[in-house]
Amino acid sequence: MLQWMKNSFDLAGHETTLKREMMAGMISFFTIVYIIAVNATILAEAGIPMEAGIIATILTCVVGCWLMGFWANAPIILVPGMGINAMFTYTLVHSMGLTWQEALGVVVVSGVIVTIISFTKLAQVLLEAIPSSLKHAITVGLGLFLTLIGLEKGGLIVKGENSLLSLGDVSSPYVIATILTVILAVTLFMRNVPANFLISIVAGTIIAAVLGVVSFSDVGGSALPMDSYLSLFGAVSFAKIGEFTFLVAVFSLTMVLLFENIGLINGHLGMINRPEKFKRSFQANGISILTSGFFGTSPTVSTVETAAGIAAGGRTGVTAITTGSLFLLSIFAIPFIKIIPGSAIAPILIIIGVLMLQSVKQIDFQDLSEGFPAFLVIVMIPFSYSIADGIAFGFIAYPLMKLVLGKAKEVSAPLYVIAALFFLTFLTNVH
Predict the structure, then answer these.
(1) What are phi and psi of 78, to 5 degrees?
(2) Is residue 187 part of a domain?
(3) Cross-strand bridge partners of residue 336
(4) 342 and 221 in a common domain
(5) 235 and 381 assigned to the same domain
(6) The total number of structural domains that make up the chain
(7) 149 with 295, same domain?
(8) Which of 255, 270, 334, 340 measures 20 to 30 Å from 425, CA to CA?
(9) Is the dihedral of CA 307, 29, 12, 8 positive or negative?
(10) pLDDT tens track of the chain, all 431 residues?
(11) How far is residue 201's CA from residue 188's CA, in Å, rounded to a whole number?
């Protein structure tokens, strides 16, 4: 079995080992496992039962990661996307008036469209239409976004009373636990200690327990019964598929899924210098989006936290398969997973943000027609708290900058179309 895995996933050709890949998969799992509770909570506000939402999230993560691992042999993690789940609940259901069953129908249709595109030349056309400056900007923007999430999860940054953001209470036990874990995590990482991220998470949980942030006595309860999930699985409705609202919802969701995932996948594959894996990775992503609708959750994305596994040495699909398998096991271990505090996860996200920030060196800021749109992507992703909106600002600004400077020929025809569609999405206010 071990030899089959080594050969099938070409571990030698990727200059990695089975142990390293599995360890990277564990790291990816622990940095993204929070999605189980968070996603289910957001889905619950759309009307989906909490327990059913938890199981739907877990199963979607399992299938998504396995698809990516077996089909694309890439270390990319597919889980319901933060921001996309908010769009599902607050835009499709609350604002547009769709039921959660109809919103799941929107997810399925969008998944079909993305899958079709992924299996045609359109996927490569879209990838080539994006200038390298914007690709690098997306990576940097995602790094800053991940850092912001880490700072928030660690309590170092909070919502300000007289400003958008403010420094958290650095004297609180929770923030002290975060700071101590950051120091430990950075030290272990810089010394290149094996499994440094995993050690940091475990040690961070212990530090939090010592400071009274979490208690191991809170571990208890039982696994969730699958019968609570039967009312959600396959509860997809296409009753309004011919109505304008449904069509606008499909257009909006598809636009976000296409360009957010193109940017994320390209960024992750850039980290391991394997651009040839883009086609199959995008295909796995499309199929995963399609299945997530039937499982009963918002669409999957190639999550930003994938960078944690890559930074830990993940290079092949074994990393994704390991993460997916741990998600499957997590259905029996939710009480244990829930005690891992944000103070133990935050330092990992911050370190990854630093690593992703290095792509800024690849952007030519001397040429403002390249640098300014890239700048917009970089700042708007974290400041708007939306990957999709940040990307949209840059994609709209790029052709505009080229036009006013008389460099219209430097912009590909598909990018003009993409910019127009993003602009239309803003106008319809359903992004």
Answers:
(1) -110, 115
(2) yes
(3) none
(4) yes
(5) no
(6) 2
(7) yes
(8) 270
(9) negative
(10) 667 777 888 888 898 999 999 999 998 998 888 888 788 888 988 999 888 898 999 999 999 999 999 999 999 999 998 778 888 988 789 878 899 999 999 999 999 999 999 999 888 888 788 888 988 888 888 889 888 888 988 999 998 888 888 999 999 999 999 999 999 999 998 998 877 787 888 899 999 999 999 887 766 655 566 777 888 999 999 999 988 889 888 987 888 788 789 888 988 998 899 999 999 999 999 999 999 999 999 999 998 889 889 988 999 999 999 999 999 998 887 777 667 888 988 898 888 888 888 889 999 999 999 999 999 999 998 888 877 788 889 999 999 999 998 888 889 888 898 888 888 877 766 44
(11) 12
- Specify whether 40 is located in the same domain as 91: yes
Is 269 inside any structural domain?
yes
Together in a domain, 130 and 262: yes
Q: Which residues constitute the domain of residue 404?
A: 363-428
Measure the CA–CA gap between 393 and 229, rounded to whole angstroms: 39
Domain annotation covers residue 5: no
Q: Which two tokens stand for residue 70?
A: 């077996």
Amino acid identity, position 358: Q
**Does 1 fall in a domain?**
no
Question: How far is residue 284's CA from residue 290's CA, in Å, rounded to a whole number?
Answer: 10
In terms of domains, do 96 and 125 share one? yes
